[in-house]
Protein: Methionine--tRNA ligase
Organism: Citricoccus muralis
Amino acid sequence: MSSTPDRRYYVTTAIAYPNGEPHIGHAYEYIGADAMARFKRLDGYNTYFLTGTDEHGQKMQQTAEKLGITVAELAARNSAQFKRIDDEVLGISYDRFIQTTDPDHHVTAQELWRRMEANGDIYLDRYAGWYSVRDERFFTEDETEVAEDGTRTAVETGTEVTWTEEESYFFRLSAYQDKLLELYRTNPEFAAPRYRFNEVIRFVESGLEDLSISRTSFDWGIDVPESSTGMTPSAHHVMYVWVDALSNYLTGSGFPNESYTQRWPADLHVIGKDISRFHCVFWPAFLMSAGIELPRRVIIHGFLNNRGEKMSKSLGNVVGPEEWVNQYGLDTVRYFLLREFSFGADGSYSHEAVVGRHNADLANNLGNLAQRSLSMVAKNCNTAVPTPGELTEADQGLLDAVEALLEHSRAAYEIQDFHGALEHTWSVLAKANAYFADQQPWVLRKTDTARMETVLWVTLETVRRIALLVQPVLPTAAGRLLDLLGIDADGDAGATNASGAGARSFAAWNDSLVPGAALPKPEPVFPRYE
Ligand code: ME8
């Protein structure tokens, strides 16, 4: 399908610290961004999807020291793990897997820095304050508290902070308070959901301090470029890991090559709730300073909890994506994570909840309807698309509800309401199941075969459109359903994985099944989970 430049879409995930293995929380973010990317590709957008790993900083350095390996080794080893999970386990259709150790990323980050300096927003001073290595973040004294055992921790995140005193470059964040508030006022959709965006706004309203943006006490990072304004540091500085990390989104666009504006600005940054401040405050301020267009939107998803409990290594309840996918199948995991709770909210999972969704929604509502109608067609219509006669009000009512689904999903995906899109789609599926039960085609088989064919045709049309529409969430199963309906692949949901190629674009939405066309032998797509 041809795509025009204004129909382009650039979506990113946060880049994870590869200081450990990916967990289901990471997978959740990738699956959300992946569904978004697939939807846009199938809808005819020239889509670019960036994900990857954030490899520098003190946390990586300390983890490597504890493990007794070099930090480069740690980064390479775990980054490969993240990439493998994306490729082989989750079927993530990214276009580039960026690593902040990539050479072109160093060029981008340094150029961003130079432009901020040229704009007069970077100065050299001394930093003295509290730093949390776990959070890779500075805290003011009143954002910390001292525990009974004498350790000082950050109130917000509960992580240990250490006193840090060193020469540092600063970014004049304080100069951007009004500009940021103006951005939020004029772009109410800049970040979502609203309650998380409001937290960001309150933080900015309460006043911004300049931000320390370099470190001298370790060197695992991107070198600060030589000053163009005559500043002379007394030590070697590497960039604060968040300046380095955030600029990855620009690297993915090709910046500073002139052609970067063909991709930039990013349409959507998908991130978790713990890093909203970095994306909604620091990042737009850096870009404003450098004179670069701002991203259009930040969607802030919630955290996944295990039966309502925070996932943590010490509780031993961290779930690996591979474990889940092996147990339930990829499509079920994807469906569960996007259907069970809304993307902005925190969500809780349990074995019972995943199995419940699989059996009720996938095996019963979708799988059974497809299987029952297709096997009737095989037995009674010579395994070919049935021929519809005149449509009754009931037929037309169902077809109309199904037809409206594409516009509904488009609007829902525009605000990353995957939950709402699926909920509504399944409510129409429920209508289709009720229609099938009411019309009783198995009775019509004996009394009125012409009418039976109409009912079966209407049902298959319903399955066809719903399968088309849910490909971004259920790439494998929806693809198989479309195979069973004899529909040729014409689209590409993503460059990197097998289930992406061979997709059907939404351009086929207004086609319809051709009476008499031969169908393959039906087979069940969603066996029940026992
Ligand atoms: O923050 N549930 O990396 P990270 C849902 N390197 N999402 C979760 C989660 C959970 N239980 N735990 C983490 C970083 N996440 C930085 C990002 S971007 C320029 C740099 C999400 O490995 C988290 O919110 O700690 C973030 O969006 C992503 O996983 C990576 O987290």
